[in-house]
Amino acid sequence: MIRGFHHAAICTPDLERSLHFYRDLVGLEVLSEGGWESGWDVADRITDLKGTAARWVMLSAGNANLELFQYESPPGLRQDPDRPVNDPGITHICLEVTGLQAMYDRLVAAGMRFHCPPQDQGDIGWATYGRDPDGNVVELLEYPDPDHVEALKL
């Protein structure tokens, strides 16, 4: 039985840069952090990689969490920082916010690239897509009425 959505994870080549973005600029809260050295067979089996070593930080994103990983070994391939959102795979993470326009303005001033300014989606609310420092797409979404979220649940 599924209890709920716990977290999504993003692998980054620069954990400190991503942590600065998600913690300091976006405003997520650090819950825990850790890592492991090469030679931990359990991590190698779970990831289906050999000789893994990594550091991670778990961040609270309100009703779910976001985990940031930096693998020290083995090295990963770089992704295209402009990967289109219609490519197969996870296309974006969405953060429900309040004060979307102010957050957008603050993140633009800090150097975040956005696809467009916040867009009015009528009854759905306001939304925009932007890119984190590694090019992952982050949607910022503001509902006009918090009760609207309950109406979307099936």
Mind sketching the topology for me?
Blueprint: E1 7-11, H1 15-25, E2 29-36, H2 41-47, E3 53-60, E4 65-73, E5 93-96, H3 100-109, E6 113-114, E7 119-120, E8 126-131, E9 137-142, H4 147-152
Parallel strand pairs: 1-4, 5-9
Antiparallel strand pairs: 2-3, 3-4, 6-8, 7-8, 8-9
Radius of gyration (CA) equals: 17 Å
If you average the pLDDT, what whole number results?
91
Kindly, what is the distance between the CA atoms of the first and last residues, rounded to a whole number of angstroms?
17 Å
Q: Poorly predicted ranges (pLDDT <50, ≥5 residues)?
A: none
| Beta-strand proportion | 25-35%
Notes on the protein architecture:
The chain is of the alpha+beta class and 154 residues long. The strands form two sheets. Strands 5, 6, 7, 8 and 9 form a five-stranded mixed sheet that branches. It has a four-stranded mixed sheet with strand order 1-4-3-2, covered by helices on one side. It has helices at 15-25, 41-47, 100-109, 147-152, and strands spanning 7-11, 29-36, 53-60, 65-73, 93-96, 113-114, 119-120, 126-131, 137-142. The chain has four helices and nine strands. A hairpin with a 4-residue loop joins strand 3 (53-60) and strand 4. The protein folds into two domains: 7-73, 2,3-Dihydroxybiphenyl 1,2-Dioxygenase, domain 1 (Roll); 93-152, 2,3-Dihydroxybiphenyl 1,2-Dioxygenase, domain 1.
